Amino acid sequence: MADTLRVCALYPDLMNIYADRGNMLMLERRCGWRGLGFTLTAAGLGDVIDPDAHDLFYLGGGQDRDQQLCAHDLYDNKREALHAAAARGAIVLGICGGIQLLGDHYELGDERVPGIGLVDLVTKRAVDGSRLTGNVAIELELEGLDGPRVLAGFENHGGRTVLGAGEQPLGRVLKGHGNDGRSGVEGVHRGSVIGTYLHGPLLPKNAWFADWLLATALRRAPGDLALLDDALEDAAHASARRAAGV
Question: Is 96 one of the catalytic residues?
Answer without folding.
Answer: yes
